[in-house]
Write a structure and sequence with these properties.
Layout: E1 2-7, H1 12-22, E2 27-34, H2 39-44, H3 49-55, E3 61-64, H4 68-71, E4 77-80, H5 84-97, E5 101-103, H6 110-120, E6 124-127, H7 133-148, E7 154-161, H8 171-184, E8 191-193, E9 207-213, E10 219-227, E11 230-238, H9 242-256, E12 261-263
Parallel strand pairs: 1-2, 1-4, 2-3, 4-5, 5-6, 6-12, 7-9, 8-9
Antiparallel strand pairs: 7-10, 10-11
Helix pairs in contact: 1-9, 5-6, 7-8
The structure holds nicotinamide-adenine-dinucleotide (NAD).
């Protein structure tokens, strides 16, 4: 039985991890961590807030991120979908206690990336901007597509997410854009985030990245490859967060037996049959 410590447990992804784990015989959510004062944590747990704080119950332990170091021994692996601060705290606690970490938190800055890299020198850390195995497949298909699509064709990426998403563009859109740039020999200065005003003719080699926000879109990424008089579209749509949760649980299985280091979803051997 693999016991998960979920950071950001009261959030959309935290709840999706809970639901995905409940469908599996060999995985359970043992510890739920969220911010102080997040009411939804109490709703998710099996004991009252006072009981959880006083000594931690034998199952369904809940706590705030401040408790993370103390409760880590109750879990085998930490799965974080919280925010930049939660991801950092999780990484520091995992490194201190020798517990592997899977993190899907996006919008991390330089400092947070350094904290993750430092933790990865002590424990296995797997991070991904998108845990969907469909997006992993899209990235592999992108490599093949760009080997065939003429270099003069323009690339634009359009992503759509729910109205609550805090970071923009999505980590996945950035990942797709950078992978395309890498294959075409470009750099971040070729990225164009939206267009407004008299921007003039589109420079060749530019990759446009456009973020649409609204409603309840879970995650929708379209890559457009436009030539003269023809175009190709590659699109991935996540219909529910279970797609990310299932990938994150596969990642949790992976880090359990992995040596210290910084891993990505590419390190997973995903069976194709
Ligand atoms: P959400 O706002 O619904 O949930 C985040 C939860 O984390 C909240 O309950 C919040 O209280 C908690 N939290 C925030 N800071 C915390 C901290 N310091 N300590 C403990 N808990 C803290 O957000 P969400 O939609 O579940 O997304 C969470 C993160 O995961 C975002 O960065 C999002 O972009 C990312 N995400 C990644 C993937 C992926 O596949 N990699 C998929 C979906 C979302």
């Amino acid at each position: 039985m693999i016991s998960l410590v979920v950071v950001g447990a009261a959030g959309r992804m935290g709840r999706a991890i809970e639901e995905a784990a409940a469908t599996l015989d060999d995985v359970r959510v043992r510890v739920r961590i969220d911010r102080t004062g997040t009411v939804a944590v109490s709703a998710a747990k099996s004991v009252g807030a006072g009981g959880a704080r006083a000594g931690y119950a034998s199952s369904g332990i809940d706590g705030t991120v401040e408790d993370l170091g103390r409760v880590l021994e109750a879990g085998d692996v930490v799965v974080d979908f919280s925010g930049p601060e939660g991801a950092c705290r999780a990484a520091e606690a995992c490194a201190a206690r020798g517990v592997p970490l899977v993190t899907g938190t996006t919008g991390l800055g330089v400092r947070e990336n350094e904290v993750l890299a430092a933790a990865a020198r002590r424990v296995a850390v797997l991070r991904a901007a998108n845990f969907s195995l469909g997006v992993l497949a899209l990235r592999k298909i992108l490599g093949t597509a760009l080997a065939w699509i003429p270099k003069q064709w323009d690339i634009e990426i359009v992503e759509r997410h729910h109205r609550h998403k805090a970071d923009s563009p999505s980590g996945t859109a950035l990942l797709l854009a950078r992978e395309a740039l890498q294959r075409r020999g470009g750099s971040d200065s070729d990225l164009c985030f939206g267009r407004n005003g008299h921007v003039g003719e589109r420079p060749s080699g530019e990759i446009g990245v456009h973020a649409v926000r609204g409603g309840s879109w879970v995650g929708d990424h379209t890559m457009l490859f436009a030539g003269a008089g023809e175009w190709i579209e590659l699109r991935h749509v996540a219909q529910d967060r279970g797609a990310f949760a299932r990938g994150a649980i596969e990642a949790a299985r992976f880090v359990l037996s992995a040596a210290p280091g910084l891993y990505t979803l590419d390190d997973l051997q995903v069976p194709s049959s």
